[in-house]
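Consider the following input, taken from an annotated entry for Secreted protein (Streptomyces cavernicola).
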Amino acid sequence: MRSRALLISLAAAASTLGMVAPAQAADAGDVVVFSTEFQPLDTYENPQGCHKLPLAAHTLTNRTDKPVTVHADPFCVTPGLTIMPGYGSHVAPGTGSFSV
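Applying the prediction step yields:
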């Protein structure tokens, strides 16, 4: 009981001193996919789950606050490449997908 009170006091002190990060929205931002110079960008706002990439997809930019995984299949079942927030990657055109 005494150790629980100590932990609660330490957590309160850390919060007061700004040592604890504030809660953030889980899915803030967007994923942007470039296909060709002749079509607009595909933007996925606050994406969740699995999304099939456009057939002509060329690059993917992760502008969310979470890692995004690019998969070679359209159902997000194969292992993939993880793209950290603020980074991007070339993607294979055709049947790929991404998940958040």
